[in-house]
Write a structure and sequence with these properties.
globular, DNA-binding, homodimer, 3-stranded antiparallel β-sheet, 5 helices, about 15% strand
Chain lengths: ~100, ~100
DNA sequence: TATAAACATGAACGATTGCTCATATGTTCA
DNA sequence: TGAACATATGAGCAATCGTTCATGTTTATA
């Protein structure tokens, strides 16, 4: 336990963490931590423009960190799985020592 | 558990994950996961130039992810704490589904 | 003290990133 | 069908990043 397992995968790992390496994306993920939301609600909750949110959601979706579902003209996004929450909480633990 | 705790801290969190968002730095941290090493050994273990390793170690040290200790003209680096291992393993879990 | 070894550092440059602005796509409803 | 709403997308640009190359700093040893 708490022992590094793979000596490879460094590239994929870096790719994964790149998705967490931006304040806007973190805000979006934290916001989605409260529950599924549509793009407009994410934008107002985070104070980021609709366009910027949409661009970042694309990045998060590509990284398999969020999933979405269309319902009429509204598209609802949610965190892909509990790994996302866990990774964020792990980071918060580290920050708060 | 597995519930996002803080609604703020987004900036600091992004800063933390930026340190993991580069393949070279991940390679260095995985290498240090095997145990403490000097700069030259890290360079040969990762196949990265001494200069690049040194630059990245500075970044990792600034992020409090590694610590170092001078012994003569050799400087030995090691992972700062088990959070680093945990964060990397968490990422590997996510990658390997 | 002069030299070499181990590491750090600064400048410079190409590559990537995240935003804005304008516009396109898709959907509902009158 | 046409207007309005929700979201996505592409171009363009400033900012950040990671490397290399050259050189500086610190320590040991002849």
């Amino acid at each position: 336990m708490d022992e590094i397992k793979s000596a490879d995968d460094a590239g994929k790992l870096a790719e994964l963490y790149k998705a967490f390496a931006d304040e806007t994306r973190v805000r979006i993920m934290i916001s989605l931590g409260e529950g599924a939301k549509c793009v407009g609600d994410i934008a107002s909750a985070t104070g980021v423009s609709q366009s910027a949110v949409s661009h970042q959601l694309k990045t998060l979706k590509y990284a398999n960190l969020v999933s979405c579902q269309r319902d009429g003209r509204v598209i609802t996004y949610e965190l892909a799985d509990d790994h996302v929450r866990t990774i964020i909480n792990m980071g918060l633990d580290h920050i708060h020592e």
